[in-house]
Amino acid sequence: MQVWRAERQIRVPRLTIDRARATDAGMMSALLQVAVGGAIGSCLRYGVVLLAQRLAAPGFPVGVLGVNVIGSFLMGLAVVILAQRGAGQISPLVMTGLLGGFTTFSAFSLEAFMLWERGQAMAALGYVGLSVGLSIGALILGVWLARGFFA
C-alpha cells in the first residue's frame, strides 16, 4: 500500500489539448461574434416586425415574411461575398449571429439551395417539406402540451 505524502504533487489532467484544433481564443472570439451579431439581428427583426405591424393591415404576418425573405436574400449575398473576399473569419458574426438572429429562415434557405445546387433535388425537396412540416407539427405539439399543462 502506498502512502501519499504532503510534498508529493498530484497531477491534474488539462482540459485543453495543444494540437491542431480549434483554439480556446478562437472559439471565444467566434462565440463573441455570434453573441454580438445575434443581439443586433434580433433587435433588427423586432424593429422590422413592429414597423410592419404598424404599417400593414392586421391578420397576415407581413413583418415575419419580410424578415424571412430579406434575411434569405442577405444570406445569399453574404455567403458569396465572404467567400470571394476570404472573409470567413467574420462568418460567425454576419451569417450565424446577425442573419441568424434576424431570421433562422435564412440558414434554412441556404441549406436547401446548397442541396439543390449539388444536384440533390429530391433531398432538397425532402428537406424543405420535412423542415416546414415537422416544425409546424412540433409547434402544434408544444402548444397542445403547454395548454394541457399550464391552462
UniProtKB/TrEMBL annotation:
Ranges that cross the membrane: 29-48, 60-82, 94-116, 122-146
Membrane topology qualifier: Multi-pass membrane protein
Cell location: Cell membrane
Main localisation: membrane
GO molecular-function terms, A-Z: fluoride channel activity; metal ion binding
Regulation: Na(+) is not transported, but it plays an essential structural role and its presence is essential for fluoride channel function.
Reactions this protein catalyses: fluoride(in) = fluoride(out)
Binding site for Na(+): G100, T103
One of the GO biological process terms: cellular detoxification of fluoride
UniProt xrefs under HAMAP family: FluC
Similarity comment text for this entry: Belongs to the fluoride channel Fluc/FEX (TC 1.A.43) family.
Protein name (record): Fluoride-specific ion channel FluC
Gene behind this protein: crcB
